[in-house]
Specification:
alpha/beta, Aspartate Aminotransferase, domain 1, Aspartate Aminotransferase, domain 2, six-stranded mixed β-sheet, 16 helices, binds pyridoxal-5'-phosphate
């Protein structure tokens, strides 16, 4: 078996790391993960590290869940892949029905793709094509929120507004209008302005896209559910589509199954990925209403012109079905409620640490700030380094420190994780590191 040093040398020599400059790639410490179980990442030396970022916000049921391993093994014996063009199979068709069952009422159709970005890209393309071939080609613009993040493809970057991710590509992106940034965390004026933009141009808007209630990449920014409820009414009044990007917030991350449930709304299109496959396989879906699906009836020229090789991949679909079964059998959402309450309490307590501001949480997502510089801030990274030494893998968004543990994390592991977050933050902010 190769040593950690050998693996790190290979990594540094040949790998291109996401969101990391080539210089940083050579310098930043790396934890070599050998295996993982529950909330724990385990090194080759047996060192156990709590995975506080849920392996990029997707690991909702913990690593190596025995039922997900078994479902994957079972499915691999039978059918690992097959095109979804003019063929179907049990995992894809049953999963579609089961997703419709748990989705906000009225979302009746499921289009599969491979990751969060494609799920959103598909939603944008559906909305655009829908109007184009159903008598309203002038509805060709999208509205979005400031600070939005919807993925890294060109379409999703156009809808996005986290400049650090998109500014270099700006000349390639299409124009999406959005209100200015919230001031002092006040979101009401932002939604008022969004409604005004919508009313001013009601007949030209193909859709409004939002991350419901929590903007993840912008720094775990949270806004009240009532604003989403009101936005749904505005989109209905304007006769346009609401696209809910639940890639991060879905599958109980914020409490209920969908963040839209807090607001009691059904969007026209809903994007899901990450937790959909328990964070195990690249798998995603875009859900739509029957009305939108009906807009694609007719000859070949009216078909949705989109498809991926691995659309509805049987392994991913079988694992996603098992994820849904675990949510049902273990009542994951109900069981997470006391954990979320405890997380909220401990995150609120972080204000006792001098230098910590804006503690906030929703469901199993908690965050706070440790400085002003946002995504480009470095204090969060110092805290992350300190936390790694204490046994937790944090991946801050610059100076936003957050935790998104598995929904089914043990109470003792949750306390341990929050102890480490507290201790590493205290040490760094006291200048002890
Ligand atoms: C809200 C949201 N949409 C879309 C994406 C893109 O998902 P993926 O990284 O799977 O392409 C993310 C990823 O973090 C996200 O948080």
């Amino acid at each position: 078996m190769p040593s950690d040093d050998e693996l790190i040398a290979l990594d540094r020599a040949h790998l291109w790391r996401p969101y990391t400059s080539s210089d940083d790639h050579e310098k930043r410490p790396l934890f070599v993960v050998d295996r993982a179980e529950g909330p724990w990442l385990i090194g080759s030396d047996g060192r156990r590290i709590l995975d506080a970022s849920g392996s990029w916000w997707c690991n909702n049921l913990g690593h190596g869940h025995p039922r997900l391993r078994a479902a994957l093994a079972r499915q691999s014996e039978q059918l690992m892949h097959c095109t979804l063009a003019a063929a179907t199979h049990e995992p894809a068709s049953r999963l579609a029905a089961e997703l419709v069952e748990v989705a906000p009422a009225g979302l009746n159709r499921v289009f599969y793709s491979d990751n969060g970005s494609t799920a959103v890209e598909v939603a944008l393309k559906i909305a655009f094509q829908y109007w184009r071939q159903n008598g309203c080609p002038e509805r060709n613009r999208f509205l979005a929120l400031p600070g939005a993040y919807h993925g890294d493809t060109l379409g999703t970057m156009s809808a996005g507004a986290v400049d650090e991710f998109t500014s270099v590509f700006r000349p390639l992106l299409f124009n999406v209008q959005r209100p200015p940034e919230p001031i002092d965390h006040r979101w009401e004026p932002v939604f008022d302005e969004l409604a005004a933009l919508l009313r001013n141009d009601a007949d030209r808007i193909a859709g409004v896209i939002v991350e419901p209630l929590v903007q993840g990449a912008a720094g775990m920014r949270m806004y009240p559910a009532e604003l989403l409820t009101a936005l749904r009414e505005e989109t209905e009044r304007a006769g346009t589509l609401l696209i809910a990007d639940e890639v991060f917030t879905g599958f109980g991350r914020t409490g209920p199954m969908w963040a839209c449930d807090h607001a009691g709304i059904t969007p026209d299109l809903l994007c899901t990925a990450k937790g959909l496959s328990g964070g195990v396989l690249p798998f995603s879906a875009t859900l739509a209403t029957e009305r939108i699906y009906d807009g694609f009836r007719g000859d070949k020229s009216r078909a949705l012109m989109h498809g991926h090789t691995f659309c509805g991949n049987p392994l991913g679909a079988a694992v996603a079905r098992e994820v849904l079964a675990i949510y049902r059998d273990d009542d994951i959402l109900e069981a997470a409620k006391p954990k979320a309450a405890r997380l909220a309490e401990r995150i609120q307590d972080m204000v006792e640490v001098p230098g910590v501001t804006a503690p906030r949480s929703l469901g199993m997502c908690g965050a706070f700030e440790v400085g002003e510089s946002g995504y480009m801030g470095t204090i969060g990274w110092q805290i992350s380094d300190a936390a790694l030494g204490l046994g937790a893998h944090l991946r801050p968004l610059g100076n936003t420190v957050y935790v998104v543990p598995p929904l089914n994390i043990d109470n003792a592991d949750l306390e341990r994780l929050l102890d480490i977050v507290r201790e590493s933050t205290e040490r760094v902010l006291a200048g002890a590191e």
